[in-house]
Amino acid sequence: MNNNEYKAVFKCISGCNVEYPLDKVVYECEKCGSLLEVSHDMDRLKKKSPKEWKALFESRTAATSWPYGSGVWGKKEWVCPEVDNDNVVSMFEGNTNLFWARRLGEYLGVQDLWVKMCGNSHTGSFKDLGMTVLVSVVNEMIKKGRDIKAVACASTGDTSAALAAYCAYAGIPSIVFLPSNKISTAQLVQPMANGSIVLSLDTNFDGCMKIVKEITKDNKIYLANSMNSLRVEGQKSISVEIVQQFDWEVPDVIIIPGGNLGNVSALGNGFKMMKELGLIDKTPRIVLAQAEKANPLYLSYQTGFKKFNPIQPEKTLASAIQIGDPVSVQKAIRALNEFDGIVEQASEDELANAAALGDLTGLYSCPHTGVALAALIKLIEQKKIKKKDRVIVISTAHGLKFSEFKIGYHESALNGVNSKFANRPIETEPDINKIWEILDREFAGRKKAL
């Protein structure tokens, strides 16, 4: 079933006014080479009142009516309205919880701190939100007779997991290019388990990206990286979810980690759309957090975004954002300029200890969320985040995908990291008196800690 009342097309971000249908295999403007973005017919969308949109979205949340129970497809009219419902490839992704980080906020001096748990999804990361849209469009093209042999991506882990799972669900072959020895075992095994053709290349992510761009010049293999703006459309549902979860109130600050930088523009697009359609009357400040060893946007921010230079990223614990030449940089800069943006960075020591600090209050943070938490700590210290601000940290992946990181931290085995919160098992004899001595000592010591 199509909802023909609403329309969307690809448009060039540089203002060429060139339009392409969403089922055209195109990733960059054929006129000027700039990236594309999905553009909606806002006049048609405005025919429904803000109250009607809110009621519609509320009625679909966590429902079972296909495909609207998905956090993405529950906003189908705002995302990809013309895909036939029967061709949607969805695992009812999205609708992830907000973790009220009350203890962590009290410790840091912020009264209203929340963590959006985007890693509580099918493949364990926010990448599911964009991949459901992209694979659905490919599925529809194939069903209509388009000769597409496979979908391919370069990845530092999470994108490949999402692509493999959604393609497996749809019965579409997938190909993933991964930098060898640079992603966690848990991330590597996900595309293997879902039947992808997995190629491990002796290069970094940027090298993998060059290869996948060449491979997908043959339009029979479809590109699934975030330079494909269909991904961004699904990811912008995060913005709507957050506001909906607060009864349509807008938070003051949102902090999101970034590597290839499609996520920050997605976040901004969601808020712009809600504001233009009258669902909200203000927007949040957006903070983009990068690892110090992969920080090209942070360096550009130091110049007021007057220049941007790709870098050769160094190995970082935040492996999913170990990217030196992000494809979505211009979209990200535009979004940050529109949302009073800040770019902050985190060292290896800062990100690891920030993740561990969050864990002590009930989180189980991936290293990329650690980057965002480290940025939060710095901005509080700099007084750029105030005590009464409502702050949302975007957790991009589940900590269970990074068990090696967790083990290394608590074994004090991570290079460049002073594990301030390491918590090792205490070996002792099965003697009740000795055990009580240990417990009394630990109780007394932990009262002084967090």
Shape: globular
CATH architecture of the domain at 98-124 and 232-410: 3-Layer(aba) Sandwich
Task: Please tell me how large the radius of gyration is.
Answer: 22 Å
* Poorly predicted segments: none
List the secondary-structure elements in sequence, H or E.
EEEHHHEHEHEHEHEHEHHEHEHHEHHEHH
Main sheet makeup: 6 strands, mixed
Q: Can you give a write-up of this model?
A:
By secondary structure, the chain is an alpha/beta fold. The protein has a domain of 206 residues: Rossmann fold (3-Layer(aba) Sandwich), CATH 3.40.50.1100. The chain is 39% helix and 14% strand. Strand 1 and strand 2 form a beta hairpin.
What is this structure's SSE topology?
Blueprint: E1 8-12, E2 19-21, E3 36-40, H1 42-45, H2 50-60, H3 76-79, E4 98-100, H4 102-108, E5 112-117, H5 127-143, E6 150-154, H6 158-170, E7 174-179, H7 185-193, E8 197-201, H8 205-215, E9 221-223, H9 229-235, H10 237-245, E10 253-257, H11 262-276, E11 285-291, H12 296-301, H13 329-338, E12 342-346, H14 348-359, H15 367-381, E13 390-395, H16 403-410, H17 432-447
Parallel strand pairs: 5-13, 6-7, 6-9, 7-8, 10-11, 10-13, 11-12
Antiparallel strand pairs: 1-2, 1-3, 4-5
Helix pairs in contact: 5-6, 5-9, 6-7, 9-11, 10-11, 11-13, 14-15
Short descriptors:
globular; alpha/beta; Rossmann fold; single chain; six-stranded mixed beta sheet; 450 residues
Write a brief caption for the model.
It contains 17 helices and 13 strands. The protein is of the alpha/beta class and 450 residues long. The model has no long low-confidence stretch (mean pLDDT 94).
